[in-house]
Amino acid sequence: MNIFSIQKLSNHFVTNNSVIINKGSILEISCVTKRVYKKYQKPSFLLKYFFPIFSFSKKPHILITDEWSKNYCHWLWEALSKLLELKKECKDAVLVLPKSYLKIDFVMKSLAALGFDKKNIKTIPKRSRLKVKNLFFIPCINISTKGYYDFLKFNEVPQTVVSYYQEKLKTNYGARIYISRSNPKKNTARKVVNEEELTNMLAKYGFKTVYMENFSFLEQVSIMHFSKFIIAPHGAGIANVSFAQKNCDLVELINKKWGKSCFAEMCERSYVNYSRFDCNQSDGRTLELGDIDVDVQNLENQIMSKLI
Question: Taking the complete model, does pTM exceed 0.85, yes or no?
Answer without folding.
Answer: yes
